[in-house]
Amino acid sequence: MVQITSKLHNDQLSLEMNRGDFLGEKELPLESWIRLHKIFLLNESLIISKNTAVTAGFLDKFIERITKLIE
Fold first, then answer.
1. Residue 16 is inside which H or E element, if any?
2. Facing residues of 16 across strands?
3. What range does the domain containing 12 cover?
4. How far, rounded to the nearest angstrom, does the alpha carbon of residue 23 sit from its chain's CA centroid?
5. Percent helix, strand and coil across the chain, each to the nearest 5
6. pLDDT of residue 10
7. Distance CA 10, CA 26 (A)
8. What total of structural domains would you count in the chain?
9. What phi and psi values does residue 50 have, to the nearest 5 degrees?
10. What is the CA radius of gyration of the chain?
């Protein structure tokens, strides 16, 4: 799980989420950014529902940015 915010932070710790990054018609209602340094573990039993999902291409971009951050 990652922190997603609608507040823009002009730094290397934000990854913008665009309309084309979501699968199907469901996207987040506001412009959103992932805060790359805020990653959490969550027990699957605590998840009530799933709002949307991202494309494989966005997931690859996310993994690449996280890898650069920890190098």
1. strand 14-17
2. 33
3. 2-70
4. 13
5. 30, 25, 45
6. 87
7. 26
8. 1
9. -115, 125
10. 13
Report how far residue 49's alpha carbon sits from residue 44's, in angstroms, rounded to the nearest whole number: 10
pLDDT exceeds cutoff 90 at 58: yes
Q: Are 36 and 3 in contact (CB under 8 A)?
A: no
Residue type, position 42, single letter: L
Q: What is the DSSP string of 17-43?
A: E-GGGBSTT---SS-EEEEEEEE----
Return d(Cα 64, Cα 71) in angstroms, integer.
Answer: 11
What is the distance, to the nearest Å, from the Cα of residue 5 to the centroid of all Cα atoms in its chain?
9
Model pLDDT for residues 8-53, shown as the tens digit of each residue? 988 989 999 998 999 988 888 899 999 999 999 999 999 999 888 9
